[in-house]
Amino acid sequence: MIPDTALVLAVPATLLAVELVMRLRFRESLAHWSATMRQSASLMADKAMDDDEKQEKMARAAAATLGDTLKLFAIIAMALGGFVLTIAAGIGVLKTGATLAATILRPDLQVVSVLVAIGYVLARRRVLR
Predict the structure, then answer these.
(1) Crossing angle of helices 107-127/5-23, nearest 10°?
(2) Per-domain boundaries in the chain
C-alpha cells in the first residue's frame, strides 16, 4: 500500500513550520503584545493623568503595538511560507501531478498537520525538560 504523498509531505512541512514559530519566539512576542495592550487599556482608564501626557504615552503604546503586531504577522507568514514551500518542493520532486492549492486545502492534510504539530510540541517539551 502506497501512502498518500500529500500526507507524507505534511510531516516535514509541519515540523518546519512549528520549528520556525518556536525559534522566532512567537510566544514571547505574543506575551509582549498582550502586555502592551493591557498597558494601553489601563492608561486609557487612568483618570489622574492629564490628557496631554496620556496622549503622548498612548502614541508610544500605539507604536509599540504596531511593531509587535507586525512582528507576529511576520512570524506567522514565515511559518506558513515554510509550510507551503516544503509542500511545493515535495510536489515538484515527487511529480505527483496535484496542484499546490488543491493539496494544501485538503482537510485531511490540515488535520494531519495539526496532529503532527501537537505531537511534536509535546515531544519537544519532554525532551527539553
Answers:
(1) 50
(2) 5-127
Measuring CA to CA, which residue among 118, 100, 96, 127 is closest to residue 15? 118
- The three-point CA angle 60-38-20 to 5° equals 85
Q: Report the C-alpha gap between 105 and 84 in whole angstroms.
A: 11
| Listed residue (106, 77, 76) closest to 91, CA to CA | 106
Q: Tens digit of pLDDT for each residue in 6-50? A: 888 889 999 999 998 888 888 888 888 898 888 888 887 777 877
C-alpha cell at 12: 516535514
CA atoms lying within 13 Å on the CB side of residue 120: 19
Q: What is the pTM assigned to this prediction?
A: 0.76
Half-sphere CA count of 9, side-chain side, radius 13 A: 24
Round to whole Å and give the CA distance between 57 and 51: 10
Tell me the per-residue pLDDT of 66-79, one tens digit each, with 9 for 90 and over. Answer: 998 999 999 999 99
